[in-house]
Amino acid sequence: MFGGVPGFPASVPAKQLQKYADQCLTASFDGSGFALQDIVNEVGARIGATVSPGRYRGTQKHTGLDGLWCFLNGRAIVIEVKTTDAYSINLNTIAGYRKALIEKGEITEDTSSILLVVGRQETENLEAQIRGSRFAWNIRMISVDALLRLMFIKEEVEDPALLQRIHAILVPYEFTRLDGIADLLFSAAKEIQQEEREVELEPDDSAGKSEAPKIAPASFHEECVKRVQTTLGVSLVKRTRSGYSTPDNKAGLVCSVSKEHSPEKNPNYWFAFHPYQQEFLKQFSAAHVAFGCGSSKQVLLIPYADFEKWLEDSWTTTNEDRMYWHVVVYRKGEKVELRLRKGKKAVDLTRYLIASEA
């Protein structure tokens, strides 16, 4: 619980979480350490962990760990949050939290570790303390700033393999060979650049076989998402570059945007829809896709159950390392339609347009 409001961190944008973390680290106020604990656990959730928050204070019956993060690959991380490293930390106590969870059968020794999340002060003494302890191969440390940066990287990528590399950074690792870290940085940059360069192809049977001229990417996702939130009456939190979900993870959204092409004679809009976006939406009991057509004033909001039916008749592009569907939308006056492969009837999407704002 943050500031007495249950679930509050889950509903705020990432940039606001960063501001709250800065306040906890730079201002001295009652409960700042507890607030930072909540923020760090929310960051864990946003980078893909299932988070079990710890207690603010331990008791004789309950361990005092600050959080337990579990990932889909089976890894579990015991979290300890410290606003400062100005004093020695009892590593035996923290290791005891992990040992207690292992004895209860909640985690296993081989697939669990400890992560110390510390403020931005100098950490040489704490690093030396960890290296000189018998827990050196079970404990890693990261600053709040670095953890936040991982969250922001995660918001800009979507490839599941890349997300697993982000998770691996938090696990004890033999750093003599740095290929894993280099791969993470390279892959993140490559995915972002690839999305920005994604080609838009002519709607014919040659789609996916020839390149079109490079087109500057449109960028009005957040404005579109605000309109979706108002229409659905929900709050949405950014999870990946195009993926959003409600704080309780019951509803999900993938939002894509396109500039308007041929506005004078034949207005049309081009989007890419990826298999990993499809997998993202399948997690939710209520899922939608949103397409910003030219601007946030013209947004299609389509239940995923309807949209999925049209994918098999859409053009696709397949190259050496990815495949995606082309979503091709044309506008004729007040009417918009989804164009499909040759021989397939276009789908009238007009009813999915979000009503114009007053």
Distance linking N and C termini? 37 Å
Spatial order of the strands forming the largest sheet: 1-2-3-4-5
Radius of gyration: 23 Å
Low-pLDDT residue spans? 1-6, 196-216
- What is the structural class? alpha+beta
| Global outline | elongated
Helix content: 25-40%
Number of strands: 15
How many H/I helical runs?
10
Oligomeric state of shown chains:
single chain
Order of helices and strands: HHEEEHEHEHHHHEEEEHEEHEEEE
Describe this structure as you would to a colleague.
This protein is α+β, with helices and mostly antiparallel strands. Helices cover 31% and strands 22% of the residues. It is built from 10 helices and 15 strands. The chain has helices spanning 14-26, 32-46, 91-103, 124-131, 144-155, 160-168, 179-197, 221-232, 275-281, 304-307; strands at residues 50-53, 67-70, 76-82, 112-118, 139-143, 237-238, 243-245, 251-258, 268-273, 286-293, 299-303, 316-318, 323-332, 335-339, 347-348. The chain has a 5-stranded mixed β-sheet, sandwiched between helices. It is elongated. The model is unreliable at 1-6 and 196-216 (pLDDT under 50).
